Design the sequence.
């Protein structure tokens, strides 16, 4: 089956809005056994939309269209669909009933302009929208079924899952199997070198690289009948890449770290300078983190480092706030203040100012203290202020993950 997608909206072409709908639709269709072969984006223009609909209908079996179903004068999708189908708009009684039901649920009622959303191509089939005012609809053009959905992502996603994918799944082949392994701390070239020979030519298991900075995702795919080979390939990749693999499929670094902390029974405190609380925010975003995370200190100024963490002022004066000595003192001070098993500290120069020849922008020190020692390491990260802060935060989380893995003799498997 040939499937295409069409996104409608001026804002998508000006860069004001990122088109997440197209990627979501393609991803869900792939899981259901389909594959999008073409995607188009067009502006809010009747002729442009109608031309795109005719083009895609002429070369596809199914087209999923999003956007342009709102109540404002620049929402032209229904009109363009009628033009492309060679029919006219009519007031849909089903859509009017939907608007009436929706109006009963909201305070203040609907604006009269919403009635415009009930003007749909004659003879179309409605798609229920449980979350919004715009009904979707299905039109057949040149033998292709065109599914029209709102552009609002949460409305579109619900309608796609409940009303579009189920009937399409009956027409699709068996779904492909897919496993995503998430890596950190190893470049793509080194990954490829380690995986040499794992995927021979004409292997039924496909491998794709996807960089989602600062992570690298390895996506392994196979047809359903090769599920056994896919499982073997996943294990081979894990074996070659060891602890660089930090998560699988929908799991995140935060999820993985939370699991390891719960298993270890250890507690944690943080002392952050250049990250300004980003690490604590990531850790506490996971429910149940209060079981192991005791406290976080954002000691941005030198005075705060001295007052809250007992970092000697003379140490800062001698070595600078961004130094291995101060990072170590921050970590040990945070651990003593909180009474935690572990404490991690970060201090660095995120920029754009503050760098020197000896310590340029991107210089960051991380320290991790436990009962027996305190490890410190210097990094020279690249990028703008946001990039330096982001990679520092992720590196800190990975430090904690690897510490906990080593503590229990694990290799990162999950």
Sequence:
């Amino acid at each position: 089956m040939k499937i295409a997608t069409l996104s409608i909206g001026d804002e998508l072409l000006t860069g004001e809005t990122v088109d997440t709908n197209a990627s979501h639709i393609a991803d869900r269709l792939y899981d259901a056994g389909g594959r999008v072969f073409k995607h188009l984006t067009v502006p809010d223009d009747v002729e442009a939309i109608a031309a795109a609909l005719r083009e895609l209908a002429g070369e596809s079996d199914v087209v999923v269209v999003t956007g342009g179903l709102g109540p404002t004068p620049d929402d032209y999708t229904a009109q363009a669909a009628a033009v492309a189908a060679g029919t006219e708009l009519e007031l849909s009684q089903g859509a009017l009933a939907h608007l009436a039901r929706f109006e009963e649920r909201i305070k203040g009622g609907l604006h009269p302009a919403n009635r415009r959303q009930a003007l749909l191509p004659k003879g179309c089939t409605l798609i229920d929208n449980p979350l919004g005012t715009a009904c979707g609809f299905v039109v057949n053009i040149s033998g292709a079924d065109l599914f029209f959905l709102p552009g609002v992502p949460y409305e579109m996603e619900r309608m796609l899952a409940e009303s579009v994918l189920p009937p399409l799944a009956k027409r699709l082949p068996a779904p492909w199997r897919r496993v995503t392994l998430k890596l950190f701390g190893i470049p793509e070239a080194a990954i490829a070198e380690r995986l040499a020979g794992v995927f021979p030519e004409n292997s039924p298991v496909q491998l794709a690289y996807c960089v989602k900075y600062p992570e690298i995702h390895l996506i392994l795919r196979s047809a359903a009948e090769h599920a056994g080979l896919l499982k073997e390939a996943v294990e081979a990749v894990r074996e070659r890449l060891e602890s660089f693999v930090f998560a699988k499929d929908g799991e995140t670094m935060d999820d993985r770290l939370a699991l390891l902390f719960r298993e270890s029974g250890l507690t944690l405190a943080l002392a952050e300078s250049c990250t300004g609380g980003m690490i604590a925010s990531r850790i506490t975003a996971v429910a149940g983190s209060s079981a192991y995370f005791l406290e976080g200190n954002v000691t941005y100024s030198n005075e705060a480092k001295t007052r809250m963490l007992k970092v000697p002022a003379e140490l800062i004066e001698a070595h600078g706030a961004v130094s291995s000595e101060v990072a170590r003192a921050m970590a040990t001070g945070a651990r003593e203040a909180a009474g935690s098993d572990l404490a991690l500290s970060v201090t660095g120069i995120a920029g754009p100012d503050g760098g020197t020849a000896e310590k340029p922008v991107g210089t960051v020190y991380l320290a991790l203290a436990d009962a027996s020692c305190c490890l410190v390491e210097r990094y020279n990260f690249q990028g703008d202020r946001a990039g330096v802060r982001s990679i520092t935060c992720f590196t800190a989380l990975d430090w904690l993950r690897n510490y906990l893995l080593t503590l229990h003799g694990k290799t990162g498997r999950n």
The chain has a mean pLDDT of 95. The domain at 253-407 is CATH 3.90.950.20 (Maf protein). The radius of gyration is 27 Å. The chain has 14 helices and 17 strands.
